[in-house]
Amino acid sequence: MTRTFVRYIQCVRDAGSRPSRRALVAAMLMAVALPAGARLPPPTPEQQQAADARKATEAEQAKHQAEELAQVQDQIAARFGKKGAADASGATEPGKVSQKAAEATQAAGPHGGTSPSAEAHSGEAERR
């Protein structure tokens, strides 16, 4: 194909006319695409063994990490299960309720007041 590309360029030059941009772009793309079609040689036995060993160690590490993750998840689930089983109703103990939540006497929603909101202390919001 490279020879046909060279012949095409020679014919265009000999004809005296300037080749169009599309023709030049197509010719350049053909020239670039030719080396991309080449195949790599097969790996040597040593390279293949090294790749197999690397895959085996990676698989072993992944299995070990999965086992550790399962153990941690089981521990967390056991802690959550103990806590959830003792208090299945979902109610919070009176000593663990915040003062503002315990003193809420009006209906929910904004209705002004003297205590600043949490947003007042967060600084100015970013404008985009």
Report on this structure:
The chain has 128 residues and is an all-alpha fold. The chain contains four helices and no strands. The longest helix is centred in the middle third of the chain and has 42 residues, at 45-86. The radius of gyration is 36 Å and the shape is elongated. 0% of the residues are buried.
Topology overview:
Blueprint lengths: L1 H14 L5 H16 L8 H42 L12 H4 L26
List keywords for this structure.
59% helix; 128 residues; 0% strand; mainly alpha; 4 helices
Low-pLDDT segments, ≥5 res: none
The run of helices and strands is HHHH
Percent of residues in β-strands: under 5%
How many β-strand stretches?
A: 0
Overview in brief:
This protein is mostly helical. Helix content is 59%, strand content 0%.
